[in-house]
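Recall that a protein's primary structure is simply its ordered list of amino acids. Everything else, from secondary elements to tertiary packing, is in principle encoded there. The following example makes that idea concrete.
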Amino acid sequence: MSISAKLRMEGKDYDAPGYYFVTLCADERRRIFGRLVGEAIELSDVGQAAEACWRAIPEHFPDVELGAFVVMPDHVHGIVRITRWQRPKGVLAEQGDSRKKTGTRRGSLGSIIKGFKIGVTMTCRAKKSFGPIFQENYYDVICFDAAELAIKDAYIRANPQRLALKKVPRGTIKRSAYLGNLALLESEPKLALRVSRKATEAELAKLSAELNCFGGVVASTFFSPGEQRLLDELLVNGTSRLIWILPMGMPGQVPIKWATALLRSRALWLSAYPEDMTAATRETCLACNAWAHRLATISRSTTAR
């Protein structure tokens, strides 16, 4: 069995109509497609060729539609939709093909990706960019429903930010793990936010209005439903500065909703707990609320009871 065959899902028809999430890696994972600049990828000549050839796929395969796509320094991600059994332009139905009567022959995701790779390679050779471009194989996930498709779409669009997040400062301070802008510890004023699970809509609306007028740093566990709701508003607010006191260990991955705040130095995470502690307890929440209160430099904490 070939390496390519091993990567395909057994029993699945890869020329069937549907959505496919595809990943192609650069040969030896070299960073030949571009480089990270801020929160975006600055494409090299090879990266520009990859982007142009990807966009041109429907010109060669009329029954293909393209979804989200991103070129990363050493790989590309894209979503391909096959709308029906297809035949590339200029290819006649083969004799004996079961689809000859319909005017098509068996196409496949593989033929689409092969054509894309050939196009990129030919473009780069014309520009005297020699050497292998892609790894021999590619990876794919069949998106069986709208929910899975939405997850893959969001993953692709956030990929440059996810790479940028690897450069956010992290380490240990006073036996606590941190991620983000340590300078926020010295910023004033600070406000310790604590919202009870019993908070009413009116109380949450009042807190939201107060926070929108607050120009300092908001420190909180952001654990209760009310705190989570206000956090989402604060993350959208481009001026809010936030210190998250985690009542559990530091997560291995950053939720993408935090990306902009962390990348623009508007957020700091602090955790006094081991990484393998993935769930909070009542005791850790109480301890972290007290920690947030100690960090606050104003005379009171804003609390909804």
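Confidence is low (pLDDT under 50) at residues 1-6, 92-106. The domain at 3-166 is CATH 3.30.70.1290 (Alpha-Beta Plaits).
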